[in-house]
Design goal:
elongated, alpha/beta, four-stranded mixed beta sheet, 44% helix, MeTfrase_dom, 17 helices, 11 strands, 432 residues, Cyclopropane-fatty-acyl-phospholipid synthase family protein
Length: 432
C-alpha cells in the first residue's frame, strides 16, 4: 500500500478537525507530518482497528501495550503535543462510525476502515484488567485491584523504584539523588507527625515497608503497616528482619477498615487514598479519625486533580483504570480537605509538592529505560510498556498542572483545643 502515512495523516486530520501535531511513520515505512520532533510509529494496521472500535485513549492504549504503536524520539514531548487529543477532548464513544454525523467525516471514517484492514478488532492485551467482581470499592474488589497493580513482581518494582522501594512522590533539593529525595520525604512525614520513641504509628498502605522501617529505625516508633498485597508484605517482612526491627514493626495483609487495635499516636497514609474511591472517602476519614488518640496526627499524602466545572461529569481515566490502577479515583484538593474536616479533623497544614512528583517520575522512567530488557524479562513486554507510558504521561500531567500532589497534616484535636502543633510549624523543613 503506497504512502500509508500520508493517507493516515490526512484522514486523522479530517476526523480531528485540525493538524496532527506530530510526525507519523506507517507500517510501510512512509512518513508524513511536521519534521524535527518525535515520531509516532504505527507498526501494524491492527492498531487502526483498535482505535476505530475504541476511539480515544483506550484504543491508543491497547495498541501501545500490544507494541503496534511506538515512539521514536522524546516520549515526553510527544505526549505533551498529543495532550489536547488524549486528555482534553474527553469521553469514549461506541464506535467511530456512530460518533460522526457530518457526511464528510463519515466518508473519512469509511476510508479509515478500508485502510485498517479486515475487521473485527484484535482482542485486548492480556495485561488489561478484566473480570472484576463485587461492587466498586468493596473489600473483595479493592483486593483484586491492588493485586493487579502491585503483585507484578518485587524485582520489577526494585528495578523501577531503586533501593528505597518507595512508590510515591519524593521530596527534592536542587542536586539530590532519588535515594536522598525519598529519604527526605519519609523524614519530612515523620517530623510532621512528630513521631517519638515508643509512639504507635499506623502506616496505611505500607507498600514495601519503607516508611515503617524509617520511623522505627530513626525515631524508635512501634509501627503497624497494613497492605492488601501479599507480595509487598513478604518483601517488607524480609527487609524488616534484615534491619533487626522485628520487635518494633508488624506488617499485616489487612484492609485498613479492619484495623481495630487503636488508639495510635499517628497515622501515615502515603499514596493510598487514591485507591479509596469517592463513595468511600468519608468512611476512610472516619476510620482513621477513630483509630487516633486525642491529639493524634494524620499525614495524608495524596494525588489530586483539577476541579471539574461539573463534578458529576468526572470520569476515571480509561487507560489508568484498565491497565494501571483499577478503580482508582482522584479528588480535587478542596474536597479532600473538606472531607477530613467533616470527619472531625483539624487540618493544620497543606503542602503542595506537584513539581516534586514530576521529577520523581522522570527518574523512575529513566531506571526502567536503562534496564529495559531485564524489565521485560521480569514481567512482560506489555507490562513494561504500560509502566513507561503511564509514568511518562503522569510526569507531563504534573508538569502542566493537570494533576497535583499534596500532604495534609490533620490533628484529632481534643475538646481542650490544644492541638500540640508549634506556633510556627514550618520548622519541620529544617531538621534540628
Amino acid at each position: 500500500m503506497a504512502d500509508a502515512a500520508s493517507r493516515l495523516t490526512t484522514l486523522a486530520e479530517e476526523l480531528l478537525g485540525g493538524p496532527l501535531p506530530v510526525r507519523l511513520r506507517a507500517w510501510d515505512g512512509s512518513e508524513a507530518g511536521p519534521a524535527g520532533g518525535p515520531v509516532l510509529i504505527v507498526r501494524d494496521r491492527r492498531a487502526l482497528r483498535r482505535m476505530i472500535w475504541k476511539p480515544g485513549e483506550l484504543g491508543l492504549a491497547r495498541a501501545w501495550v500490544a507494541g503496534e504503536i511506538d515512539v521514536e524520539g522524546d516520549l515526553y514531548e510527544l505526549l505533551d503535543r498529543l495532550s489536547g487529543l488524549l486528555w482534553e477532548r474527553g469521553g469514549e464513544s461506541r464506535g467511530l462510525l456512530e460518533s460522526v454525523r457530518d457526511p464528510r467525516l463519515r466518508a473519512a471514517a469509511r476510508a479509515l476502515l478500508r485502510l485498517a484492514g479486515p475487521l473485527p478488532p484484535p482482542q485486548p492485551p492480556a495485561e488489561e484488567m478484566r473480570g472484576r467482581s463485587g461492587s466498586r470499592h468493596s473489600r473483595r474488589r479493592d483486593k483484586q485491584a491492588i493485586s493487579h497493580h502491585y503483585d507484578v513482581g518485587n524485582d520489577f518494582y526494585a528495578l523501577v523504584l531503586g533501593p528505597s522501594m518507595v512508590y510515591s512522590c519524593a521530596y527534592w533539593t536542587e542536586d539530590g539523588t532519588l535515594e536522598e529525595a525519598q529519604h527526605d520525604k519519609l523524614d519530612l512525614i515523620a517530623r510532621k507527625l512528630n513521631v517519638k520513641e515508643g509512639d504507635r504509628l499506623l502506616d496505611v498502605g505500607c507498600g514495601w515497608g519503607s516508611m515503617a522501617i524509617h520511623a522505627a529505625r530513626e525515631y524508635g516508633a512501634r509501627v503497624v503497616g497494613v497492605t492488601l498485597s501479599r507480595e509487598q508484605a513478604a518483601f517488607a517482612r524480609k527487609r524488616i528482619a534484615e534491619e533487626g526491627l522485628t520487635d518494633l514493626i508488624e506488617i499485616r495483609v489487612q484492609d485498613y477498615r479492619d484495623v481495630t487495635d487503636g488508639p495510635y499516636d499517628a497515622i501515615s497514609s502515603i499514596g493510598m487514598a487514591e485507591h479509596v474511591g469517592a463513595v468511600k472517602y468519608r468512611e476512610y476519614a472516619d476510620t482513621l479519625y477513630a483509630l487516633l488518640k486525642p491529639g493524634g496526627r494524620l499525614l495524608n499524602h495524596q494525588i489530586s486533580r483539577r476541579p471539574e466545572p461539573d463534578e458529576e461529569a468526572y470520569e476515571v481515566d480509561v487507560f489508568i483504570d484498565a491497565y494501571v490502577f483499577p478503580d482508582g479515583e482522584l479528588a480535587p484538593m478542596g474536597r479532600t480537605l473538606s472531607t477530613l474536616e467533616d470527619a472531625g479533623f483539624e487540618v493544620r497544614d497543606v503542602e503542595a509538592i506537584r513539581e516534586h512528583y514530576a521529577l520523581t517520575l522522570r527518574r523512575w522512567v529513566g531506571n526502567l529505560e536503562r534496564d529495559w530488557d531485564r524489565a521485560v524479562r521480569l514481567t512482560s513486554p506489555g507490562r513494561a510498556r504500560i509502566w513507561r507510558l503511564y509514568m511518562a504521561a503522569s510526569a507531563v500531567s504534573f508538569e502542566r498542572n493537570r494533576i497535583g500532589v499534596n500532604q495534609f497534616l490533620a490533628v484529632k484535636t481534643p475538646v481542650s483545643g490544644v492541638s500540640g502543633t508549634a506556633l510556627r510549624p514550618r520548622v519541620w523543613n529544617e531538621k534540628v
